[in-house]
Amino acid sequence: MALTSEHLFSLVVTLLLVTAVGIGAARKVKSASDFAVGGYSSGVTLVAGTIIGTIVGGSATVGTAQLAFMVGLSAWWFTLGTGLALIVMALFYARPLRATGLQTIPQFLVRHFGPAAGPLASLTSSLGIFFSIAASTLAAVPLITAMFSFGAAQAAGLVLVLIVAYVFFGGVWGTGLVGVAKTIILYITLIAIGWQTYTAMGGPAGYAAAFPAHPWLDIFGRGLWTDLGAVLSLLIGTLTTQTYVQALYAARDGDTARRGALVAAAINIPAGIPAVMAGMFMRLHHPDIAPIEALPLYILHYLPPWLGGIAMAALLLATVGSAAGLALGVGTMVTRDILSGLVRRGGDIAALWLNRLVVLAVAMAAALLTFGNLKAVIMDWNYLSMGLRGAGIILPLTAAIFRPGRIAPRLAVWSMAAGAAVTMAWRLVFPQGLDPLYAGVAASALFLAAGWRRKETDPRR
Q1: How many alpha carbons fall within 13 Å on the CB side of residue 214?
Q2: C or N terminus of the chain, fewer CB within 10 Å?
Q3: What's phi and psi for 234, nearest 5 deg?
Q4: How far is Cα 160 from Cα 190, in angstroms, rounded to an integer?
Q5: What one-character-per-residue DSSP string does 20-85 give?
Q6: Coil vs helix vs strand at 159
Q7: Residues 403 and 373 placed together within one structural domain of the fold
Q8: What is the DSSP string of 353-375?
Q9: Residue 122's domain spans which residues?
Q10: Residues near 320 by Cβ (< 8 Å), separated by ≥ 6?
Q11: For 292, which DSSP code?
Q12: What is the 3-state secondary structure of 169-223?
């Protein structure tokens, strides 16, 4: 996968342009609030950019092409499912969450269910998000090896440096502004890939002639319950991911948060289609390659070199940006909800640097996890991530928004713990069985039902 000088030139120029945007973002950060929520002043573009800059990453591109190479059209579920989840977020969750003026999901849960809810929600959500960060790191490794002929360890190390550089100084400003720039470049690339594969295959008729209808052209090609479980994971995981909710908190008002999420959904849903097309194209023409290399190899061998360099830079930015945005969410939760005592004693500057150091630690741990797992299926990690972060949180969060005061705080906390614990245990005991999310949500629902009150009470009691 050697790059030509033309590839390298357009790649470097693209990276330098986006780096300049990131440096400009860092200059806006003067306090911990600026780093975490941009001073609560983000407009629609920045809200959508923060979400898209994180959600359209390695899984939506490299991971989707990898899965399409293996199973076909059902690989589209990642961007389709997360896009539908963003619509639900915009219609029902954006305004109530933004109206609180908080910074994290655990802060919101503490307001309704007491102090025990905060650390528990932070730990379970951070653990789930961590697997997505690792998946994005994994997706970036073949890109780095293609660009610079690095070994896997060197590639993972460089990914770590890029993640930290992406978000370390700019925080949500960096994630949002770089996300906008990255999205523009990435979508130019995806449109080019989609058009080229469409014409090369002869449109839908060409794909239909080349592949059996099942599983390759079936949106439920992996099995109805498997794909429905994936969709449920994406819905629940997206609604409970700190980075996406953090983008809503950063909006200047509830209306802006709502419109930003809708714009992000409209951009996100079609993003996976070109990656699916490229993955299936490579399966037909190069069936012996490693599935994870399907999209990078397509770019290098089938796009013009000048565009191929831009495309490789766009994919690198997508994978790194997604990991960085998720790491920012973990850093904000850990700083605000677990290490809050240190923050209070150290003041605003200490909070800013503590958040940055947590981002660094999370990125380092994710890079280390990729060693020994370089052949893993990226989407498997992502679906597990979505289930872990959301199984215990989605029902208490929804109850707190729409029926505040109806759940006994002690049982709400038990509901959160049961959802996460059962999801993890089910995955370990039945690794090939029913999606663990079903079991986790059911366990959470049992405790909520036990704690349901007929009349509303003061949520702080």
Answers
A1: 4
A2: C
A3: -65, -40
A4: 25
A5: HHHHHHHTT--SHHHHHHGGG-B-HHHHHHHHHHHHSSTIIIIIHHHHHHHH-GGGGHHHHHHHHH
A6: helix
A7: no
A8: HHHHHHHHHHHHHHHHHHTT-TT
A9: 5-381
A10: 136, 140, 159, 162, 163, 166
A11: G
A12: CCHHHHHHHHHHHHHHHHHHHHHHHHHHHHHHHCHHHHHHHHCCCCCCCCCCCCC
Q: Residue 73 has which token pair?
A: 């059209």
Degrees, nearest 5: CA angle 239-263-143: 80
Distance of CA 74 to the CA centre of its chain: 19
Quick check: is 386 in a domain? Answer: no
Reference 258, options 98, 79, 84; nearest CA is 98
In our burial notation (b when 16+ CB lie closer than 10 A, e otherwise), range 277-287 reads bbbbbbbeeee
In a shared domain, residues 323 and 257: yes
331, two tokens: 């850093």
Identify whether residues 228 and 172 lie together within a single domain: yes
DSSP state of 352: H
Q: Concatenated DSSP letters for 224-241?
A: HHHHHHHHHHHHHHHHT-
CATH number at residue 315: 1.20.1730.10
Q: In Å, how far from its chain's centre is CA 347?
A: 30
Instruction: Count how many residues are written for the chain.
Output: 461
Please report, in angstroms and rounded to a whole number, the separation of the first and last CA atoms in the chain.
61
Number of domains in the chain: 2
The conformational region for residue 371 under phi > 0 = left, psi -120 to 50 = alpha, else beta, is beta
Paired tokens of 52: 């898209």
349 and 461 share one domain: no
Residues 257 and 248 sit within 8 Å (Cβ to Cβ): yes
